[in-house]
Predict the structure.
Amino acid sequence: MSDTPFDIIEVRAGVEAENERFAAQVRDITARKGVFLINLMASPGAGKTTLLCRIIDALSPTYKIGVMEADMDADVDSYTVTAHGAKALQLRTGTSCHVDAKMMLRGLDCFQDPLPDVIILENVGNLVCPAEFDVGADLKLMILSVPEGDDKPLKYPLMFTVSDLMVINKIDTAPIFDFNTEKCKAHVRALNPEMQVFPLSAKTGDGMDAFLSRLQDVIAHTLTEKRKGAAK
């Protein structure tokens, strides 16, 4: 019995439970239809779209690529990824600072069958809200850009805790911003010892090969397992 003279309703717990139900539906769809889903998260200006275009260019010879561009209003990034050959879908979130699993389901419904082999969600730009909502992705990929500083894992720990792969982008500017890559990696390892970190420059291409190789390995392995399961 509560010691307070009023009732307490755990609203967040209810929201999280509902989101998990929708996330499970997303996973079921992508498993049955053989789709690899990436949730790409980063702050505004970290280089999400530039990295995304590099990923599209690398994967397009092997896979059909779909992109969900989430933004509060603008659709400029959808034009950019379309020019690189991906099928784009614009998710206008209005005042919402993230995409949740219910929005992801609506997005999947808008892609015509057969669905793309790889669908990439370019989430709304920030390091807080997107980390709190599971969208049913196979891979949570985050970007930290050098100008943001090597201490960001200390300030936004959840994003670094829940992500699977991390890119340190704009590494070519590290001397200008006094960015200590090893210090940043140490902060990340303290939160998420399993996460692989790839320092690179999406603009110049430096470091991209190692990252793309790892990404392609993860996609190939996961899609093989999904298609085996769907065939049973």
Summary: The CA atoms of residues 20 and 197 lie 27 Å apart. The chain has one domain: 11-225. The radius of gyration is 18 Å. The mean pLDDT is 91.
